Amino acid sequence: MTLNQLRRRMQMQMNGILNKYFSGESMDYRQIFALFLPILIDQAFIIGLNLVNTAMISSSGVAAVSAVNMVDSLNIFLINVFVAVATGGTVVVAQYKGSGNDLMVSRASASTVTSVALIALGIGLLIMGMHNPVLNILFGSASSDVLDSARIYLIGSSASFVGIAVVQAVCGALRGIGKTRASLALSLIMNVLYVLLNIVFINYLNMGVMGMTLAVNIARYAGAVCALYYLFKVDATLHLRVRDLFHFPLSMLRKIMFIGLPFAAEQMFFNGGKLLTQVFIVSLGTYAIATNAIGSSLAGVFQIPASALSLTVVTVVGQCIGRGNIADARKFIKSFLVLGSCSLALVGLILMPFFQPLVGLFDPPAEIVDDIFWLLLINAIVQVPLWSISFILPSALRAAGDSRFTSITSMLTMWLFRVVLGYILGIVLGIGILGVWLAMNCEWGVRGAIFLWRFRGKKWYAHKLI
Questions:
Q1: Alpha carbon distance 76, 79 (integer Å)
Q2: In angstroms, rounded to a whole number, what is the distance separating the alpha carbons of residues 456 and 441?
Q3: Which of 68, 82, 268, 370 is 20 to 30 Å from the Cα of 119, by its Cα?
Q4: The pTM is what?
Q5: What is the DSSP letter of 460?
């Protein structure tokens, strides 16, 4: 057999596998991977650039790293509230796109942008007005230099919420109609600008946390301007006008909130639990905060492909449900779960041997390097069977309209396992930061098992959204 014949045979076998598991009546594997690849690049840039930002702020000392990590844990909690509403918009847009109703796709997109921006504005103003009590309640046990830096970063990042909200809403609508390349371009504009400004403000002007605060505001509002310009002047399919943002029907808002509000509540409770575990970690000292910050940043790198799959599956399943094709939705969900676990295993095998150069980016104190290694190793092993069913599967169920069940399940398992068990293992039994992470891994398993049980039944696709 010649080399060309072997190559053709392998290509035919690969096409056969892709057709079997990633093609159906609703879409084929070429369309799915055309959706997935821009989202994968987007996630890689977002997480990679966050890694670079954390490494850059490390040059300002352990206190600066700790302050940024503490506030970012709160920021993630707050930002995910309006990102959840944007996800509701993505689901509604995707289902209308699947049903072929272009007029309602346009109206859903406009409603998503307006509602997400207003929610972000309210949250940002509330946090800016109450920054002192928030910091004292959550991080009062931190040292004074950490708290001073945290105060600057909290006020500044809260001021940027409307900017990132507009970008997230526009990107969510674009993902819903399958325009993931445009979504990628907008995300890259915002995140690359953020890193470039951080290089100038932190590395060259030595502005530390204040420099990062200025950078995040400039980058997010520049991204919002570009997103709105694209929506009104460049995009030829949504046909949106500026006045559409100021008029949206309540019936459309109810559809978005049917998905968005339970998901927002889930994000509040879910990330509130993560925030509470951050309070546990603060009580363990500055080194524990830095260990958690660096470990979390590196763990995010391992999850880049799986995170991209969890975003892609919303569009894929949403459009399948919009067409009324349950068989395709079920088939694609199974394929995404297997692919997610395989990607986690492959990335773990590739990156763990490079632990030393990766952790060296953060220039951590020598005392915490071994702790970071064990956190990352255990997490890399455990996430292979558990991460996909805990994160990709609920994204798929939510895209089918099953938002309430997924949200309640996530809230209960978070508080019963990650928070309570994390406190017992980390604080009561004295295992420390490792105990907090082990509790998180246990929570993945329990939550994933419940979602698998739900997926085997019929109730997850019984919701009538459009």
A1: 5
A2: 23
A3: 68
A4: 0.79
A5: G
